[in-house]
Amino acid sequence: MEKERIVILGAGESGVGAAMLAQKQGFDVFVSDFGAIADRYKATLTELSIPFEEKKHTQELILTAIEVIKSPGIPDDVAIVKAIKKQRIPVISEIEFAKRYTDAKTICITGSNGKTTTTMLTYHILKKAGLNVGLAGNIGHSFAAQVATENFDWYVLEISSFMLDDMYAFKADLAVLLNITPDHLDRYDYKMNNYAASKMRITQNQTAADYFIYCADDEETQKALKNTTVTAKKYPFSIRKKIELGAYLEGNNLNININQLDQFTMSISELALQGKHNIYNSMASGIVAKVLDIRNSTIRESMGDIKNIEHRLEHVAKISGVDYINDSKATNVNSTWYALESVQPEVVLIMGGVDKGNDYDMLKELVKSKVKAIVCLGKNNKRIHEAFEDDVDVIVNTFSAHEAVQVAYHLAKKGDTVLLSPACASFDLFKNYEDRGNQFKMAVKEL
Length: 447
Fold this sequence. Notes:
Elements: E1 5-9, H1 13-24, E2 28-33, H2 39-47, E3 52-54, H3 59-62, E4 67-70, H4 79-86, E5 91-92, H5 94-99, E6 105-110, H6 115-128, E7 133-137, H7 143-149, E8 154-158, H8 161-165, E9 174-177, H9 192-200, E10 211-215, H10 219-226, E11 233-238, E12 246-250, E13 253-257, E14 264-267, H11 276-291, H12 296-305, E15 314-319, E16 322-326, H13 333-342, E17 347-351, H14 364-370, E18 371-377, H15 382-388, E19 394-398, H16 401-411, E20 417-420, H17 433-445
Parallel strand pairs: 1-2, 1-4, 2-3, 4-5, 6-8, 6-9, 7-8, 9-10, 10-11, 11-12, 16-20, 17-18, 17-20, 18-19
Antiparallel strand pairs: 12-13, 13-14, 15-16
Helix pairs in contact: 1-7, 6-11, 6-12, 9-10, 16-17
Domain Mur ligase central: 109-288
EC number: 6.3.2.9
Organism: Pedobacter duraquae
């Protein structure tokens, strides 16, 4: 009997994971990548004798598939995807495919900002509670590869809107939506409603036995909820108002209450992850933990000892009363908005790099109210000057992390914050955002 053919577009972490699982399930598998395939992924495919092609898409080999698993990074408007859809071949995501072959329960975390931190914190709590849990999605090893090779009871999945777009039968047992702020709008016809609808797909197929955890303070989420029927049990969280069932802030105490009997309380000063955005992230993870009936002492301990993700609002040092924060992972305007929103004024902001057609308008209010000086770090800083010349008194150009830190050091006074939050990609002066962050940290340590 001839095997049914599954084609995988994109040979990154998710694509190669999907290929491993499809092979294990007895399909005839073919992997096609329009770019070059990284050596380690090529080695895996070769070792498993999975046929692949790179730097091209051969239609005759692709259009014979019964189903195509598409990498989240490939937009729907590229020629090969259009050709596949014209043939009415279903296109799904790796997450959708992997879920068919596991009975494990899934905790799915999405949002424009804070996904990685909340996913890591949730995983940390579950692991500490002794659950048999895997970590996947946008983070770590691919979900499909783990379904093929591991046997977890639970998965904590970081889910992007691009993954959600190609999910149909998939269901999250616990769905978490942190926030909806403008990002990737180029993939959504520049319409915020389209992007919000994509994020709300996290609730699709949920039943009354499932849970939806969301931020009651986020305007776009509230708007999107009006247009979405959510069947799952809802647990909101807020730092602005008291929530009957969910999580809220009272004074300096974070409270989680999902039934009247067993309330969780913790002072926000004891949270390892500091800043307003991290109170939200901790609330979301805490509600998940309470739904799973994890003991208060375990939740408290986990929230108090998790290490922050490197290069994401990472506190580097306090020197002469000035805080130095490394947010090199902020490669878009949206992430920089988030960083500025979470720090106290006065800020010396180090930003710049490869501009992806950025719209700096959303930063203007925050820059006006919080930023005393901008230190540009990049080869071409013209657009940053144009965007903010009326909002700050000082804008300086620098061309290395060392120079940027030296200039910021002289501009900052006791009580100020020096924040590296570039809003741009790093490839003009650095290998990647990690390299940029590491060079910044080195330069701070030399002060």
